[in-house]
Amino acid sequence: MRLPLRLIAIAGATLAAAASVGPAPAVARPGSGRTPAVLVGAFTPLPAPRGYLNLHQCVYTPRSSATDWFTTVVPPSADGRFATATNASATPDPGAPTNVPSCGPGDGNFVVNMPRSGLKALDLTVGRYLNLHQCVYFDPDQYDHYTAVVTPKDLGVFSTGTNVSNTPDTRAACGSGVPGDRPIPLLSAVKTLDLSTARYLNLHQCVYYSSLVNDHFTTVVTPSGDGRFSTGTNVSSTPDPQASCGAGDGNFTLIPLLSGVRALPLI
To answer: Rounded to an integer, what is the distance from CA 225 to the centroid of its chain?
Structure first.
């Protein structure tokens, strides 16, 4: 049977179009053994953080005085005598149940004050956010600052709210202190760090000193009301190589020797 010329022309055009497009892409079917292609540039979520952040807080004071406290949370860049054992680990550090940190001995002039020091083992698997609370206390009679990031071993009145949670904290939670040694909201703060977004927690420690009043103090997160004492604490895909600190206010100046950064792997 002959087809009309018009139908033959239409069929020919259809075949030509199919040939120019090429065969339809293969579709993987259950049991076919084929693996669907992965799109280039597709987002791959990071694994969840694992283990513990063991946050060691070491507080030093002059051997001959009960004033001029200063705090280290990470080892200083150039003076291991004031080192701390802050680390990321699969398990809590042995001192965690009794809140006993591991600290350098000091330099002889400054020695460890264990009652104001502390250790908190933070389980990174229980929440998305590390809420890092910094509480700065001040005694106007002695003109003396004291910084706590974790609750001290023996002095709960200087407590902090540092925690891991699924919700970001919006303000620093600090203990009441003692008469004459109260928290300063201007220098206290909380920094919320999203643990799901990066591979490293970069903890920056900035230590300042005033020779006019013979007083040190430390910041680990940027104060809520004074960016002159800022720190670079962050989460990132890369480890930070050096501490990032504000310049101070003129009376208090940065001491690079006692400042430092520790990059802790989260995954």
So the answer is: 20
